[in-house]
From TrEMBL:
Coiled coil: none
Keyword list, A-Z: Aminotransferase, Isomerase, Pyridoxal phosphate, Transferase
Similarity remark: Belongs to the class-III pyridoxal-phosphate-dependent aminotransferase family.
GO molecular function: 4-aminobutyrate:2-oxoglutarate transaminase activity; isomerase activity
Official protein name in the record: Acetylornithine aminotransferase/4-aminobutyrate aminotransferase (ArgD)
EC number assigned by the record: 2.6.1.19, 5.1.1.21
Length: 433
């Protein structure tokens, strides 16, 4: 294991420990739109969207119909070796949907983790360099390289080591780490200096294949990197021949009010990973990127027998139709404004609310104690109480409420959620939770 990863694992230790809380017992029986119903018939508003994997709503009738139709026609003829009409359509669609007007390739897989693994392989093959730089607090998946590329605690390192060589971490520019009085410009420069320090101390830039980032960290707490920082990092990769890749598995497909979270920054990445919501809950992932990079590892360099199977591809095509027809990206933006307005007011009323970050239907809501310090215990009580009242929500890093409803949530449902929040935040501040 690299020394750099060792040091930063210590930093990740606390947040991983804090995140290890027990959730309420929910046994889901069915889902529809933005709600789920449990085995006893109680219905909840879903503020988790199955970990942002159900952006287009639970069991959308168009998606369900497409799955049924495809299953009657062809379930699998391994796309690793031969084309099928449905998967071929998806390849075209994904090329069109992603930023960049260069020649593109698409590689399909079964999970967000394997998409990130693929990007590591493509970047190494293309550059002929070994090193991979990711960020503290990142979530890139649970397969081996993806775990190591993610926030990993020393406990985990001890259990699953030895780790793969060539992985390094830069400190993510997490707004929680801003110094008192530090403005965004100074913060960006300080964090970029730390990023460059990594290359000066541990990993020569000309031996680095890949910089992989979630422009808005999901599991890291719904935290958006500053524009200036992203510009500097991107520029650094251009100057040093490093592949720049974004992980859109959690934040893509309209979640943060734009199609991709990287769209907020006006940067066109070399490689982009898609997963979670793409097939409305069926296993499917994709890497879309520059053909010249992906051609460096031709088939069978990265193939999965069932990756991009026609049933998942049919679900994806129908889901992308829904995304367009129901203008879910626009919806994420307009409903997100309402959420922002709610919290602008709520922050004035409820001292338990700390920093609140809302980007479309994507929110990280910090819960704090009377001294303004992160309060994981209170956050846990809040989500248990919301569960009683009829909403499913979980925490990130222990103290952050994760707000990621399906993008089809209605205004009426949002109003119900705000009423529940009002009740629970009042109880949290009264000490009656
Ligand atoms: N990347 C991000 C940003 C994620 O949030 C996740 C899962 O939470 C993954 C990758 C891994 O995806 P999967 O669980 O489909 O392997």
């Amino acid at each position: 294991m690299s020394k750099n990863l060792d040091i930063l694992a210590e930093e990740d230790q606390n947040r991983n420990e804090a995140a290890r809380i027990k959730y309420f017992d929910l046994v889901v029986q069915s889902g529809s739109g933005a709600t789920v119903t449990d085995a006893d018939g109680k219905t909840y508003i879903d503020l988790l969207a199955s970990a942002s994997a159900i952006n287009f709503g639970h069991c959308h009738p168009k998606v369900v119909q497409a799955i049924k139709d495809q299953a009657e026609q062809l379930i699998l003829y391994t796309p690793a070796y031969f084309a099928n009409t449905t998967t071929a359509k998806l390849l075209d669609r994904l090329s069109q949907l992603t930023p960049g007007d260069f020649a593109k390739k698409v590689a399909l897989g079964n999970s967000g983790s394997d998409a990130n693994e693929a990007m590591i392989k493509f970047a190494r093959a293309y550059t002929g360099r070994p090193n991979v730089v990711t960020f503290t607090g990142a979530m890139h998946g649970s397969t081996y390289a993806a775990s190591i590329a993610s926030a990993i605690s020393l406990n985990q390192v001890r259990k699953i080591g030895p780790l793969m060589p060539g992985f390094y971490k830069a400190p993510f520019p997490d707004s929680h780490d801003r110094l008192p009085g530090e403005n965004e410009h100074d913060f960006s420069l300080r964090k970029f200096a730390e990023f460059k320090q990594l290359f000066e101390s541990y990993v020569p830039a000309d031996e680095t294949a890949l910089v992989l980032i979630e422009p808005i960290q999901g599991d890291g707490g719904i935290v958006k990197a500053p524009q200036e920082y992203m510009d500097l990092v991107y520029q650094f990769t251009r100057e040093n021949g490093i592949v720049f890749a974004v992980d859109e598995v959690n934040q893509g497909l309209g979640r943060s009010s734009t199609m991709w979270s990287i769209d907020h920054f006006g940067i066109v990445p070399d490689l982009l990973a898609i997963g979670k919501s793409i097939a409305s809950g069926l296993p499917l992932s994709a890497v879309v990127g520059k053909a010249e990079i992906m051609d460096a590892l031709p088939a069978p360099g990265h193939l999965f027998t069932t990756g991009g199977n026609p049933v998942a591809a049919a679900a994806a095509l129908a889901g992308l139709d829904v995304l367009e027809e129901e203008d879910l990206v626009g919806r994420s933006k307009s409903l997100g404004k309402r959420v922002q307005e709610y919290f602008d007011q709520a922050k004035l009323r409820y001292p338990c609310l700390g920093d609140v970050r809302i980007y479309g239907l994507d929110g990280g809501i910090d819960i704090v104690d009377k001294d303004g310090q992160p309060d994981a215990q209170l956050a846990s009580q809040i989500i248990f109480r919301l569960f009683d009242l009829g909403a499913v929500m979980i925490t990130l890093r222990g103290f952050i409420l994760r707000f990621q409803p399906p993008l089809v949530i209605t205004e009426e449902q949002l109003d119900q959620v705000f009423a529940m929040f009002d009740q629970v935040f009042t109880e949290a501040d009264d000490g009656t939770l």
